[in-house]
Every structure is written in structure tokens, then in C-alpha cells.
Amino acid sequence: MSSIPPFNAFEQPAPYRRIEGFMGEETVTRLLAHTVAREKDFQLTGVHGREGGKINPEIRISRVLRDFGDLKGEMQTRFTTVIDLTIKELGMSAIDLEHLELEIVAHGDGAFYGKHIDTMTEYPDAKSDRALTAVYYFHRLPKGFSGGELRLHSIAETEEGKHFIDIAPARDSLVLFPSWAPHEVRPISCPSGDFLDSRFAINCWYHNRRKTA
Ligand SMILES: O=C(O)CCC(=O)C(=O)O
Ligand SMILES: [Fe+2]
User: Fold this and answer.
1) What is the domain-level CATH number for residue 79?
2) Residue 5 lies in a domain
3) Percentages (nearest 5) of helix, strand, coil residues in the chain
């Protein structure tokens, strides 16, 4: 007699939500124009947690820009609209939104981000914590890179090996998942080496207000 193996939530990748056509072509064009115009202002990304924001090319290689220029308000509004349904679909507890943390990240040839979680709970004086992560992809056409999948891992590493799911960084798509979920960015190959051919993404973290004692 066969028996159904017990369900273990720790052995499944975290729940996620994917929205295609999130901004539309016109906005993708404006985002690409902004990104390319500001190429020189992108800085090497650091690693939080024990690394304390330091640059560590063994863990993470990419470049970041936190200035959205004229696009800032529009981005905040667009990302805010998806919170309620996402919380419901992912079965998360409500977020008391303190602020949205937004940045543009460029992954060029050889870039990657090793397995990590996004919560930064090690800062005792913070007013809020990252609760929900959203990543929006907007590479140019024709696509100039390969790889760069977002890999969502299970919390536990099971006997059969690691449990994960790979999500392609599809143009104009948004992926949302709880910030506690382990994940990584698989290595990128970008043969032209041209900044314009990078894997461009917007990271958005929805910060939950900390309860004061
Ligand atoms: O670009 C992605 O797909 C995810 C990026 C990420 O995990 C991060 O910046 O914390
Ligand atoms: Fe992350």
C-alpha cells in the first residue's frame, strides 16, 4: 500500500507570486532610458548582515542605483498597489507599511548573488523590517544576457538534496516573495560586456513598522 509522504513546509520553496506585464512597454522604455543615462552613478553592491554592508565579490557582484529621478513617485505608487492581494495570496500576516525601499540593480557579465535572505533584523534601532520582497525585471531587447534566474530555496536542505525553483527574469514581470525566504541570483553571462545588455531589475522591499515596547 502506498502512503502519501508527510508535507513539510520547510522542504518547499517559499510561496511566491508572479505578475506579467507589470508596468507596460512605455514605462520599461523610460526606465531603461533613466538607467542608461545614469550608468556612471551605479555603485558596487554590498552585503548586509554579518558583512555589515561590505563589498564581497565571493557573495555578490552587481551594481546599484538608488535614485529614480522623475520616476520615483510613479514607482512608489505602482509597487504599493500590489501589497494587499499579495499578502492575501501568499498567506502572510498584514504589513503595517512604514516605507518602500527601492533600488535599481544591474547584473553584468559574471554577476550573481549567492544564497541569502533579505530580512535585516540585526539592526536593533531600526524603525521597520523588510517583510515582503518584490523584484521587477526590465532588460532591453534583444536580450543581451543569459542565466540570472532567481532561485527560491526551501528553508531546509533535505536528504534528496536542495529543493528550489528557478524563475526566469522575464522582461516586464514582477516576482514577490516573503523577505525571509532564502534565494539567490544565478550567474549571468553577458557576452557583449555592454552595460545596456545587463540584467536590470528594481528591488522593492515593503517595510513593516516595528512595534515599540
Ligand atoms: O534580482 C533578483 O532576482 C533578486 C535580487 C536579490 O535577491 C537582492 O538584491 O536581494
Ligand atoms: Fe535578495
Assistant:
1) 2.60.120.620
2) no
3) 20, 35, 45
Give every CB contact of residue 92 below 8 A, 6+ residues apart in sequence: 86, 131, 132, 178
Say if ligand 1 is within 6 A of residue 135 CB. Answer: yes
Mutate to test the pocket of ligand 1, among 59, 185, 186, 204 (most ligand atoms within 8 A of CB): 185
pLDDT computed for residue 213 by the predictor:
55
**The pLDDT of residue 33:** 98
Number of domains in the chain: 1
Range of the domain at 147: 15-209
- Reported as a single tens digit per residue, the pLDDT across 88-104 is 999 999 999 999 999 99
- ipTM of this complex prediction, to 2 decimal places: 0.99
- Confidence bin at 120 (pLDDT 50/70/90): confident
Contacts of 47 (CB under 8 A, 6+ apart): 53, 54, 55, 56, 59, 60, 116
- CB of 183 within 6 A of ligand 1: the answer is yes
